[in-house]
Amino acid sequence: MTFASPSAHAQRGVTLLEMMIAMALGLMVLSAVIVLYMQTARTFQQQHAMADLQVRGRMATQLLGEELRRTGFWGEIMSPQRDDKCSDISHFTEIACALPVWGGEVTQAKTLGLVPQSAVTLDSSASRPSAVVAIRYADHGNGSCLTLDPLRHLTLDQPCQGNWHYHAGIYYLRMVDDAYSGESVPALYVYRRSASGNYASSEIVRHVEALEVEWGRDDSGDGSANRFYNSEAVSQWKPGDWDRVVAARIYMVMRSEKMAQPMPAREFLVAGRAITFGADHYQRRLFVTTATLRNGRLRGAYGL
């Protein structure tokens, strides 16, 4: 009589039911790993986009804020003298008018010849603010030489007769072609004056969807702003109004690079006006900062 060894029973294969259960459990584990990976990748992409958005937004607002803090310095705090023609808005950009800063809408800036024709509003309805900011001051850079003549009028000399150079920059928004996304994207540009006197545009940062500036005017002579005015409200200002500007509040809506997952609609309060962005594939954030125009504030407070 032949007896089967105990090892013969231990070596038998799994049943069909056992194999199906094992495959189902394996699929469940694999699905959980895939879902976890996708969620982790999506979270990483969102965090990376927000970090990049934060860096670009802070850089752009800090740059514009620092420029505004320097504006109106002509080698000394005291105000230069102006010609009578400077009361005409068409002469605002002339150096003899010594206008420290100017702000307004892109249509008016084009009329004054401050920005190139490529500076356009960002949508056909013009519901998103696209402000223009012109900044002028003296520094130790490489621009044209800036001096005060005996009658205290500003003049541009060549060659240099002093240590101060003329710095002029005009900040505006325009659409540019983006090779990475294959689309046209909004960007912040500066139209800067070179040492030769010519102007050329250069890009500061991309994905700036809205730019607005409120101008704080000192109407009491104490060096502090009594009221803030948006770009539309300052369209009829004269040089004397701009001389009394002591602060500027900058609003900038930035968006991220295009993302794979859809983002919900967002609404931001920009200079007292609600700006709505529909649902799409971009994250957005509103950056707000207030810059003190130090030279204008000192002149107003001390009657200079």
Order of helices and strands: HHEHEEEEEEEEHEEEEH
Provide a count of the helices. Answer: 5
What structural category do the secondary elements indicate? alpha+beta
Helix content: 25-40%
Question: For the largest beta sheet, what order do the strands appear in spatially?
Answer: 1-2-5-6-7
Count of discrete structural domains: 1
- Catalogue the unreliable spans: none
State the shape: elongated
Mean pLDDT: 82
Strand tally is 13
The fraction of residues in strands falls at: 25-35%
Rg:
30 Å
Cα(first) to Cα(last) distance is 124 Å
Major sheet attributes: 5 strands, antiparallel
Question: How would you sum up this structure, described in words?
Answer:
The chain has one domain (33-302). It is α+β, with helices and mostly antiparallel strands and 304 residues long. It is built from five helices and 13 strands. The strands form four sheets. A five-stranded antiparallel β-sheet has the order 1-2-5-6-7. The chain has a four-stranded antiparallel β-sheet with strand order 9-8-10-13. A two-stranded antiparallel sheet has the order 3-4. The chain has helices at residues 6-10, 16-70, 106-111, 239-243, 294-302; strands at 101-105, 131-139, 145-148, 154-157, 165-178, 183-193, 199-206, 208-217, 227-229, 245-255, 266-270, 273-277, 284-292.
